Amino acid sequence: MExxxxxxxxxxxxxxxxxxxxxxxxxxxxxPFPSVDPNGDEEYIENLSNQYLxxxxxxxxxxxxxxxxxxxxxxxxxxxxxxxxxxxxxxxxASTTQRIAEEKDGVKTSIFKFCSFREYK
Length: 121
Known about the structure:
Blueprint: E1 2-6, H1 15-25, E2 28-32, H2 42-61, E3 68-72, H3 75-87, E4 91-104, E5 107-119
Parallel strand pairs: 1-2, 1-3, 3-4
Antiparallel strand pairs: 4-5
Helix pairs in contact: 2-3
């Protein structure tokens, strides 16, 4: 089972990414990514990451499946949460993409093509 905490919920993923996630992790549970206050200090991040850790531990307690957490978003929050999850032996992954940049009439547009999931180690 994959629990995704991402500023890109699985409903917005490409068909290919959802297919691979389904094959690797069976089931996806989305937890909306928090709006992280840019003025929050380290204590704020500590408290916020504890709240999300608790939510994930409840999910883990309610299933017999292995829980893998896809974490993508604001870096200090993700780092704090990943450290806590790993201390509980919960695998964390990121999605990797290929960035395809196109420039037309001086406007640069980026398209991100999903490649794989990579474990945080």
